[in-house]
Every structure is written in structure tokens, then in C-alpha cells.
Amino acid sequence: MAAGPSPGAWDHPTALAPVVSKTRFGGAVPVSVSWPVMDLRALRCFVAVAEEGHFGRAAARLHLAQPPLSRRIRDLEADLGCRLFDRVPTGARLTPAGEVLLVEARDLLERAERARARVRDAEAGRVLVVGTAAGAGLEVGPAALAALRRDRPGLRVRLREAPVTDPTAGLREGRVDLAITRLPFDTAGLTVRVLGAEPVVAVLPADDPLAARESLPVTELAGRPRFRLPPGTDERWRAYWLAAGEDAPGPVVASVEECLHAVLWEGAVGLLPAGAVRRHARAGVAFVPVTGHPPSRIVLARRTPSAPDPLVDSVATALAEAFTADSVPRPPAGP
């Protein structure tokens, strides 16, 4: 039986064909399986020896010790079932079979390099989409982008702001590669990393008696009309932002702007992240810090990968480092 696969052979394209024998009835049945060692690395070794005409010089060219190079050539000869080189006093000379293989090997290596270049070009032209929900991560975006442009020139990143009804920010539908969002929501099938925590504020009409308070317990909003997310929204997400019984009256909203319109035009109240004070301040609306409600945990989420994605990894790292450098409060220890 031919030699088994050399270490690392699985990383390279190769044709795997079983050895078969004929039965007396004319059918072909496998009697053994030969795992070829003719991978790209073996072919590079072969071409180097053929071009140098000497094992020592080829080993130096490949930055290998000579014994492993010689072993690889012997394995290749055993796999093909023929000699590729005649050993001569001056080094190594191609046999007729070796001359045939040299032409084919050069062609295979050139095609492999072209394929590698095309894959790299496709990756370089890829636009990575980062989703965000409920304003999460908007403050650190510029710092993260600056780091990415420094470390990965030419990288293109597009931000997609999801409606507040989708806490996965488009991950579930495959609309984004990575999401900066907030817990709690159903994270099944996702990999989630907590980055920080942000307090929440009550949003009220500016003329509401509670609007003048420096802070207020969330329970003091009980009995008020509450803006709410529509049925079908993730249950944990919906319950966190409602912070009231399902029977509480109030308008159904699907965006932060609709939340603010509900406050202005319908006298509704509700909860938003504290960052809304900076991003959505306007006449007629007041924001008051609340107590008795857990802060909003900001997270980096992605689909649990079946294979590594270096580009997504690099963007995730840049975003996480930007959060670390930012003044976003860290979440308390615990589950």
C-alpha cells in the first residue's frame, strides 16, 4: 500500500482515488485506498530540485533541511510508482517521467497561485456590514474605523441601523456580518461578547410633573400609558424595554422616532438608553435617569462561525478595543 498522507496534506487540493481490482465477473471492487502525497508543497519541492539539479541547493532555496526534502521526494515517487530523478555525481537529473511531471507541476502551481490571488482580491473587495440596534456602539464607531483603516487599508465597512424591533440587528436574516446591540434577547446560534453597560432613562413629556426630578424609580411610571414594541418582537427584549405588565395601555412603536412622537403627541412614557439624551434631545421631551431597572448591556454579536473569518475577527477586535478605550461603564461581574 502507498504511504499515507503527509502532515498538513489536508490543507491542499489533491485528487483522492481508491485503488481497485477487477473481479472475475468483470466488476471493480476497492481493495485498498491510496492517499496521494502529491500536494502543492510536494510539487514545490519537486520543482525546486528539478530546477536546481541538486538536493542541497533546493533545500537551501526552500529553507528546509535536506533529509525532509529527500523524504518528500521519495514519498512522491512512491505515490506515483516511478522514479522522478536519477541520482548522479553532480546532483539529480530528471527521468523521462520527471520531465513530464515538471511541465504539469509548474502548470498546477501557477493555477494555484492565480486562485490564491483571486481569492485575496475577492476578500479585499468585500464590504463588511456591521449592524447596530437601539443606538448601541455609535460613539465608538469612529475610533474603531480609524484603527481598521490604519491596520487594514482598503477595508470597506458599512453600518446598517436596524429597527428597534430587531435586537439581532439583522444577524438572523443574514443582512449583517457583525452586530453591536443590547441584551436581553434570544441568543441561540449566536456568539455574544459583553462590551459594556449603559444606564436607561425615562422619556416623558417635558410638562409632566416627573420631568423635573433628578431621578425616579421605574415603578413610578406604573399606570402611565407606555409606548411598546409590537407583538412578535423577541419576548425578552420587549419585556425589558416595556418594564410593565402587558396590559399597560399605550401606542405600539417600531423606531426611536416613533417613541418620541408617542411622548409628544400621545403623552406616553417609556424607557430608552441614556445615549438618547444626546442623540434625540428636542423641545417638549424630557429624559430622567431611572433607578430600580438593570442597565442596558451592550454586546458584540455574530453568528456562531462554522469556519474562521479573519475579516470579521479583525473588525470585532477593533470594536472591542474601541469600547475598552471609551468611557462606557463596564458591566458588573456576574452571569
UniProtKB/TrEMBL annotation:
<dbReference type="GO" id="GO:0003677">
    <property type="term" value="F:DNA binding"/>
</dbReference>
<comment type="similarity">
    <text>Belongs to the LysR transcriptional regulatory family.</text>
</comment>
<dbReference type="InterPro" id="IPR000847">
    <property type="entry name" value="LysR_HTH_N"/>
</dbReference>
<dbReference type="Pfam" id="PF00126">
    <property type="entry name" value="HTH_1"/>
</dbReference>
<protein>
    <submittedName>
        <fullName>LysR family transcriptional regulator</fullName>
    </submittedName>
</protein>
<dbReference type="Pfam" id="PF03466">
    <property type="entry name" value="LysR_substrate"/>
</dbReference>
<dbReference type="InterPro" id="IPR036390">
    <property type="entry name" value="WH_DNA-bd_sf"/>
</dbReference>
<dbReference type="InterPro" id="IPR005119">
    <property type="entry name" value="LysR_subst-bd"/>
</dbReference>
<feature type="domain" description="HTH lysR-type">
    <location>
        <begin position="38"/>
        <end position="95"/>
    </location>
</feature>
<keyword id="KW-0238">DNA-binding</keyword>
<dbReference type="InterPro" id="IPR036388">
    <property type="entry name" value="WH-like_DNA-bd_sf"/>
</dbReference>
<dbReference type="GO" id="GO:0003700">
    <property type="term" value="F:DNA-binding transcription factor activity"/>
</dbReference>
<dbReference type="GO" id="GO:0032993">
    <property type="term" value="C:protein-DNA complex"/>
</dbReference>
<keyword id="KW-0805">Transcription regulation</keyword>
<keyword id="KW-0804">Transcription</keyword>
